[in-house]
Prior knowledge:
Elements: E1 23-25, H1 39-50, H2 58-64, H3 74-84, E2 97-101, E3 121-123, E4 135-139
Antiparallel strand pairs: 1-3, 2-4
Helix pairs in contact: 1-3
Amino acid sequence: NEAMLSGTKGEYGFQQLKENNDYTISPELNTNHLEGVSTYDIVVITRHILGAMPFDNPYKYIAADVDLSGYVSTLDIIQIRKVVLRLDLEFKKCPSWRFIDASFRFKDNNNPLAEIFPELRNYNNLNSEMLGADFVGIKMGDVSGNAARENLSAAPELRDQAERPLQIDALPSEIKAGEV
Length: 180
């Protein structure tokens, strides 16, 4: 077993592996569950559940299924809300990131949770240089896709509920109560 940290952009490489041996690459990251997760993600998942705005790619389904039930439901929303409100520091049943073999193609992009998708890559009897063992990183709970890509260990933006004054430099006309 050899562990390695990838670079800030996810690049990695293993040197001097013995030929004709079997190897498995299994990426993992389980830190900072709140990163990229906000109330907006809850809104997007709610719209999906209600059929108002279904997800447009399979990775959003996977990101939303934080309870690993195999489907997206209000129970996922409850788990995400607990992390957003800091009632829980992490998702109870899944790591903060999941990684899927980038060469994998879903049979049905609108039902990816019904499939078993590869979260590792096996190489049997390795006898040549292997390039392109790429993975797609999925930040759990982040269906809007705004988690930091450059620095996966970046701290989340902390927000509070204090009121702040609204400052507008120049108004084209006077704003009245009830106007947008």
